[in-house]
TrEMBL record:
Protein name, entry field: Cytochrome bc1 complex Rieske iron-sulfur subunit
Family annotation (Pfam families): QcrA_N, Rieske
The Rieske domain, residue ranges: 250-341
GO-annotated cellular components: plasma membrane
GO function terms (MF aspect): 2 iron, 2 sulfur cluster binding; metal ion binding; monooxygenase activity; oxidoreductase activity, acting on paired donors, with incorporation or reduction of molecular oxygen
Membrane-protein topology: Multi-pass membrane protein
Cofactor(s) needed for function: [2Fe-2S] cluster
Signal peptide bounds: none
Family, per entry: Belongs to the Rieske iron-sulfur protein family.
Coiled-coil features, chain-numbered ranges: none
Record has Magnesium as a keyword: no
Compositionally biased region (Basic and acidic residues): 1-11
């Protein structure tokens, strides 16, 4: 009896309490897709026409934005050298391109949401390669997509989209013109990079000056281990309109002083330095970045763009990185007043090595 009583007690203990949920073995039923809700453009032909007008208007506005970007490039030429033109050029071209791309994006989204078919479809995946019938069905699917999107039928949307996409490329093509200026009667070598980089404004007897204030540099003021950023003295007198930036980009120099016995100089270049002071172009021979980092202990110059390194003790030869040749050396001397002066221009072209050089 005791055992029977214990069994009944256990049965009562495992009975579910009132109000508690009981697990069931029936699987969860698929609720299916919610009822399709028609859009306003599906129910009202006027709303559909308004949506179509909105889409092709946005595409044509994109065309206008692209045209404006090209016009801004011509209205505010950066070749003028005026800082205000450079700022306006960047701002208005950027606004035009941004507006053109934004209008295409908004128009495409509005087209897909308000005009294209929004009915739900379920397509079963087949386990094998498609047969001829499957391929024909695929062709039919493309035809159905064309019909549902209205791309072939709605000519205003189609034509405006094509025009917007074509026009959006034009500003980029136009901007490429600035990479290769054309020759002019005033500047017959404007479009010839070989001629432009073969000569700078350095001339015999021209004083070396500090960048950017143009103060001439005395040899006695250059301390051991110093690295001084240098420009030609007459450069500080030029305005931006007179080509200041263009001339500076080619003529910038880095001046350093080492112990004379640390320099490893070839016979023809021993006269190019003065009492351990050497001057090299700051324009990296890889892609033209400014070489402005000097390690005093190793006497290495470092280009921060792609990590090319040059050895100042031995004619700035390349010791690491992608640069293809040493930095051009500017021959220097000292005038009667103790100021550092150039003996001549660089003896080789400055700048990247990918330009063809004579």
């Amino acid at each position: 009896m005791a055992n029977d009583d214990d069994s009944k007690a256990l049965d009562r203990a495992y009975q579910p309490s009132p109000g508690l949920g009981v697990a069931v073995s029936d699987p969860v039923q698929n609720p299916g897709l919610p009822p399709h809700r028609e859009r306003m453009t599906d129910k009202d032909p006027k709303a559909m026409k308004a949506a179509v007008r909105t889409v092709y208007t946005l595409f044509y506005l994109s065309v206008a934005g692209s045209i404006w970007a090209v016009a801004a490039y011509m209205l505010f030429p950066i070749e003028s050298g005026a800082l205000i033109d450079v700022r306006h050029n960047n701002m208005f071209i950027g606004i035009g391109i941004a507006f053109a791309l934004l209008a295409i994006g908004i128009g495409a989204i509005h087209w897909s949401k308000a005009i294209m078919s929004d009915k739900e479809y379920i397509e079963e995946r087949h386990p094998t390669r498609g047969k001829d019938a499957t391929r024909e069905a695929a062709i039919k699917a493309f035809a159905d997509a064309n019909e549902e999107s209205g791309f072939g039928r709605r000519t205003m949307i189609r034509n405006s989209l094509i025009a917007a996409l074509v026009a959006s490329v034009v500003p980029g093509i136009t901007l490429f013109r600035g990479l290769a200026p054309f020759n002019t009667p005033e500047n017959p070598i404007a479009g010839d990079p070989v001629a432009l980089l073969s000569h700078t404004m350095w001339r015999e007897g021209m004083r070396l000056a500090r960048d950017p204030d143009g103060t001439p540099i005395r040899a006695a003021d250059v301390q051991l281990g110093n690295a001084v950023h240098v420009i030609p003295e007459p450069l500080s007198e030029l305005s931006h309109h007179d080509g200041y930036l263009e001339e500076k980009a080619k003529a910038i120099v880095l001046l350093m002083r080492l112990r004379p016995e640390q320099l490893i100089e070839s016979e023809e270049r021993k006269s190019w330095s003065y009492d351990g002071i050497v001057a090299y172009s700051k324009v990296c021979t890889h892609v033209g970045c400014p070489v402005a980092l000097y390690e005093q202990q190793t006497h290495h110059l470092l280009c921060p763009c792609h990590q090319s390194q040059f050895d100042v003790t031995e004619h700035a030869k390349v010791i690491f990185g992608p640069a293809a040749r040493p930095l051009p050396q500017l021959p220097i001397a000292v005038d009667d007043e103790g100021y550092l002066v150039a003996q001549s221009d660089f003896h080789e072209p400055v700048g990247p090595s990918f330009w063809e050089r004579h």
